[in-house]
């Protein structure tokens, strides 16, 4: 049994380094389904290196939010990463209620990004910003449904899936509720990271896009910060998903860390597969999916309490 | 020192009224009196301070004093060139309002309390009606005074006729709820706040409506056996107020109206906090109780600072742009950068986003809800905790949307009207006061754990236990993380704009709108368009009204589309009620025919009826017929 702090720290550092790999994996999987060779697995690393060497361009309309948004939003994401449990190993900086802070930090990153988008006065970016705020407001409900599930499941207010009494069975008893919570969170993951069927990251110049529309005006180092932040966000959501589904017995071991990182990469494969097998929803349907995710999370809580012996 | 403070405020009001011919004397003495009185009161407040102070009133007094001074200084710029002739009236009533508000928190008897409460309502009515030439302002002022007196009527009933704790509480919730703005009792807020001068809105929204909670806590919730009732009532009202308030805020086009609705939301959050406090005590959940009370009391202070800052900011915007209609503004950030950045940060704070102060109190209330989920003793408590968790999360998202809309429509993009294009930065006093409030809220973020540790009223009994340690630790963590976030953001900005070589730092080009150069302001998203997807999604609640002229014929000439949102409470409850009353009054009016013999007949009939009544109902008692 290794020191959990060491495991968490190495996992944290590996996450920061490996995060740009995720979009590469997703794209590779999508290329596979489409019968193409697809871009290099490490394409985002090359892109980031290239962008960091280029010159930034700012809109003449912008009054400051456009310039400030990328560094500040990346700062929010990095700080959130410090709170993230890696697999089941809780962050050494974690405290009661850290999950709330985690998701509010992501909220702050979104707030400043949206203001940056509105700062350009562009109608495309206004549209993207408006949709982003709508979907995220509804996704927030589903996210806190999952946080409520975690609290009910573990009896603790912290960002961890280890039960307060330290023991307990796993899938054999709680399979249904865990699956429901994980399914709800997977829907949120797809929505918050702008994947099909909620958003299409590939249609840069169409009326269907959300996140890509907001960052149309960025180039150079600012775009690098944003792209890296987006990949880190996908990584963190996948990590939370791993926390929900990984077995407790491997917590705090190097095997556990390996499984977590492997699981995150596997999540990217699943995301790619889902994106390849679905069409983007009509925008009117997206809110229903998000409210549906909340309902699924609540159903998970219900199952945990009623059928899996949670009532005290 | 309180006597000194009242003396100063009284003298200030007297001199301001006396010299109302000379605006400079009235302004000078009025403003100095407000500040000096507040300082004296603050000294008195400090002198009363013991450790631990265990006093509810202190939490309500600080916002009054801080916002009185902030509003007074802001008024110097706000009134310049606008209504200076009536400066005497303004400063006179301003001093009286502040004195009455402060007095309410110190009143020793129900009678004193009621007198000061009425004085507070009347004096602030004069301030709301300050711009009396405008018909809309007078309409709002009348709605305000009616709400004030309806509230006072319930309070009189509560103090003198309320027998059982339940009756007292119910009357108190209605009477004080009319001041707080509980759902359905809220209708005066979105009317009076936009009508009043901005410093008055700040004082009213940041400090006065919160006094309703002071009344509830001091006079209506003393029965330990009724804690469950208090908790459930406040939680129910809070959940509806939080969600409904923010939803209606989303649909507003007037900046101060948006802020007024968001005050309803914030009062809802406080009601949830207090509700959890009472419910936790009633159900033996010490964590829920502590987190709830601590969250509510912190929210009290934080809301005062941030909402005060936002209303004062809105005043600055009004002076800079000459309008409060958000869809006619735009691009103010370039013309008034200081005001813009401060407004945006205050807005982010009230959306509950870290690193700003607003996150702290929302965080504690989340902890209260989570405490209800982790220690489920009772299905109802569990379900309520879950409901609050989801509603707070949704409302957080809606609040962020509404405030992004406000900041985006006012400050960002290109100006949408000629007036907006000629806007300018405001005078120093209007510029710095919201900034000072923001700094105070940052200090509060850093010191929140001390506020709770040493300043927390011994309200929920358990102030030393394990939960207190958890609460303080969590607040310290949040404080540290807020600091870290500011540090990280600063590092990022320094890297981006200082360390990146100058050749790559960035050049300026037109907005890239998919190959369309120089997009005009007409192509921008307006605030209304920004929130349209959300208001559409919640159209079932908001019931937007639409006036539409569709393009017709082969060569359509003109078409128009307008959508606006009316207050649900007014539209579906109060308007029908008052219409029914007017109808009834009209019917009774028939009696007033002008014929003397009919009046005499009516009197005789009444006398007969009374005789009959006396005969029938007092027959059995002693001394009867």
Fold and architecture overview:
The complex is a heterodimer of chains A (312) and B (625). Chain A contains eleven helices and one strand. Chain A is mainly alpha-helical and 312 residues long. Chain A has one domain (4-157, 169-306). The longest helix of chain A has 32 residues, at 123-154. Chain B has two domains: 50-83 and 131-489, no CATH class; 568-614. In chain B, 73% of the residues lie in helices and 2% in strands. Chain B has 24 helices and three strands. In chain B, α2 packs antiparallel against α3 (56-78), α11 runs antiparallel to α12 and α12 (255-282) runs parallel beside α16 (358-374). The termini of chain B are far apart. Chains A and B meet through β1, α4, α5, α6 and α9 of A and α15, α16, α17, α20 and β1 of B. β1 (57-59) of chain A pairs parallel with β1 (507-509) of chain B.
Main beta sheet of chain B, described?
2 strands, antiparallel
Q: How many beta-strand segments of chain B?
A: 3
Number of helices of chain A: 11
Count of DSSP strands of chain A = 1
The Cα radius of gyration of chain A reads 19 Å
Task: Kindly report the spatial arrangement of strands forming the biggest sheet of chain B.
Answer: 2-3
From the N-terminal CA to the C-terminal CA of chain A, the straight-line distance is 33 Å
Topology:
The complex is a heterodimer of chains A (312) and B (625).
Chain A: H1 4-18, H2 21-34, H3 43-52, E1 57-59, H4 65-83, H5 98-118, H6 123-154, H7 171-192, H8 211-214, H9 220-245, H10 254-277, H11 286-306
Helix pairs in contact in A: 2-10, 3-9, 4-5, 4-9, 5-6, 6-7, 6-11, 7-9, 7-11, 9-10
Chain B: H1 2-18, H2 23-48, H3 56-78, H4 87-104, H5 110-128, H6 135-161, H7 165-180, H8 189-195, H9 198-208, H10 211-220, H11 227-250, H12 255-282, H13 286-321, H14 332-335, H15 337-350, H16 358-374, H17 379-411, H18 418-421, H19 428-455, H20 466-499, E1 507-509, H21 527-537, H22 539-542, E2 545-549, E3 560-564, H23 568-588, H24 596-617
Antiparallel strand pairs in B: 2-3
Helix pairs in contact in B: 1-2, 1-4, 2-3, 2-4, 3-4, 3-9, 3-13, 3-19, 4-5, 5-6, 6-7, 6-8, 7-10, 8-9, 8-12, 9-13, 11-12, 11-17, 12-13, 12-16, 12-17, 13-15, 13-16, 13-19, 15-17, 15-19, 16-17, 17-21, 19-20
């Amino acid at each position: 049994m290794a020191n959990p702090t060491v495991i968490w720290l190495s996992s944290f550092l590996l996450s920061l380094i490996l995060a740009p790999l995720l979009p590469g994996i997703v794209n590779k999987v999508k290329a596979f389904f489409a019968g193409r060779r697809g871009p290099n697995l490490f394409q985002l690393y090359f892109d980031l290196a290239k962008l960091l060497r280029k010159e930034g361009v700012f809109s003449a309309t912008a009054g400051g939010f456009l310039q400030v948004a990328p560094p500040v939003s990346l700062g929010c994401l990095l700080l959130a990463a410090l709170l993230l449990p890696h697999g089941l190993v809780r962050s050494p900086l974690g405290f009661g209620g850290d999950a709330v802070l985690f998701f509010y930090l992501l909220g702050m990153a979104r707030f400043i990004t949206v203001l940056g988008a509105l700062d350009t006065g562009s109608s495309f970016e206004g549209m993207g910003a408006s949709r982003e705020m709508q979907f995220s407001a509804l996704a927030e409900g589903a996210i806190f449904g999952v946080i409520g599930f975690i609290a009910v499941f573990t009896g603790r207010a912290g960002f961890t899936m280890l039960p307060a009494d330290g023991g307990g069975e796993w899938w054999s008893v709680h399979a249904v509720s865990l699956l429901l919570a994980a399914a709800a969170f997977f829907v949120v993951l797809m929505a918050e990271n702008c994947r099909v069927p909620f958003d299409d990251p590939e249609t840069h110049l169409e009326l269907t896009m959300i996140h890509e529309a907001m960052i149309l005006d960025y180039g150079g180092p600012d775009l690098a910060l944003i792209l890296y932040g987006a990949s880190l966000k996908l990584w963190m959501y996948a990590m939370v998903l791993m926390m929900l589904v990984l077995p407790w017995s491997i917590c705090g071991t190097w095997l556990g860390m390996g499984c977590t990182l492997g699981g995150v990469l596997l999540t990217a494969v699943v995301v790619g597969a889902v994106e390849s097998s679905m069409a983007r929803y009509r925008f009117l349907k997206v809110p229903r999916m998000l409210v549906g995710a909340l309902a699924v999370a609540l159903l998970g809580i219900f199952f945990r309490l009623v059928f899996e012996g949670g009532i005290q | 020192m309180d006597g000194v403070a009242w003396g100063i405020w009284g003298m200030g009001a007297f001199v301001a009224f006396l010299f109302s011919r000379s605006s400079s004397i009235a302004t000078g003495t009025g403003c100095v009196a407000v500040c000096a009185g507040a300082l004296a009161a603050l000294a008195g407040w400090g002198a009363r301070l013991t450790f631990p102070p265990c006093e509810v009133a202190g939490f309500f007094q600080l916002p009054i004093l801080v916002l009185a001074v902030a509003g007074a200084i802001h008024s110097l710029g706000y009134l310049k060139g606008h209504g200076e002739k009536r400066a005497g009236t303004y400063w006179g009533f301003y001093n009286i309002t502040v004195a009455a508000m402060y007095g309410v928190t110190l009143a020793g008897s129900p009678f004193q309390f009621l007198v000061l409460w009425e004085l507070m309502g009347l004096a602030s009515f004069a301030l709301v009606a300050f711009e009396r030439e405008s018909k809309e302002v007078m309409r709002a002022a009348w709605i305000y005074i009616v709400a004030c007196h309806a509230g006072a009527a319930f309070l009189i009933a509560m103090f003198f006729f309320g027998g059982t704790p339940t009756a007292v509480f119910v009357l108190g919730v209605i009477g004080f709820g009319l001041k707080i703005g509980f759902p359905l009792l809220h209708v005066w807020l979105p009317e009076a706040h936009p009508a009043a001068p901005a410093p008055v809105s700040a004082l009213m929204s940041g400090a006065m409506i919160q006094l309703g909670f002071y009344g509830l806590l001091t006079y209506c919730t003393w029965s330990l056996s009724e804690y469950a009732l208090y908790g459930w009532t406040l939680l129910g009202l809070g959940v509806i107020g939080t969600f409904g308030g923010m939803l209606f805020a989303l649909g507003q086009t007037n900046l101060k109206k948006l802020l007024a609705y968001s005050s309803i939301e914030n009062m809802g959050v406080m009601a949830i906090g207090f509700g959890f406090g009472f419910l936790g005590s009633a159900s033996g959940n010490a964590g829920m109780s502590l987190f709830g009370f601590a969250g509510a009391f912190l929210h009290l202070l934080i809301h005062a600072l941030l909402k005060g800052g936002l209303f004062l900011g809105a005043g600055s915007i009004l002076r800079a742009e000459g309008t409060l209609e958000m869809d006619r503004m735009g691009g103010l950030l370039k013309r008034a950068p200081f005001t813009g950045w401060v407004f945006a940060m205050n807005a982010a704070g009230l959306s509950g986003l870290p690193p700003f102060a607003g996150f702290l109190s929302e965080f504690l209330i989340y902890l209260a809800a989570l405490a209800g989920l982790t220690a489920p003793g009772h299905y109802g408590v569990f379900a309520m905790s879950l409901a609050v968790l989801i509603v707070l999360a949704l409302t957080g998202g809606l609040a962020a949307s509404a405030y992004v809309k406000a900041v985006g429509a006012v400050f960002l993009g290109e100006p949408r009207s000629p007036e907006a294009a000629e806007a300018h930065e405001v005078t120093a006093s209007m510029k710095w006061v919201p900034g000072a409030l923001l700094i105070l809220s940052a200090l509060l973020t850093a010191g929140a754990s001390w506020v709770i540790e040493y300043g927390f009223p011994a309200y929920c009994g358990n102030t030393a236990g394990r939960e207190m340690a958890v609460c303080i630790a969590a607040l310290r963590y949040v404080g540290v993380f807020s600091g870290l976030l500011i540090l990280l953001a600063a590092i990022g900005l320094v890297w981006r704009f200082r360390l990146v070589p100058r050749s790559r730092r960035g050049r300026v080009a037109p907005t890239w709108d998919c190959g369309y150069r120089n997009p005009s302001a007409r192509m921008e998203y307006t605030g209304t368009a920004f929130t349209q997807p959300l208001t559409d999604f919640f159209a079932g609640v908001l019931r937007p009204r639409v006036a539409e002229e569709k393009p017709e014929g082969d060569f359509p000439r003109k078409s128009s589309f307008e959508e606006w949102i009316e207050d649900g409470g007014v539209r579906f409850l109060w308007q029908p009620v008052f219409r029914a009353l007017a109808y009834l009054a009209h019917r009774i009016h028939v009696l007033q025919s002008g014929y003397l013999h009919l009046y005499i007949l009516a009197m005789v009939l009444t006398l007969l009826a009374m005789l009959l009544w006396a005969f029938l109902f007092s027959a059995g008692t002693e001394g009867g017929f």
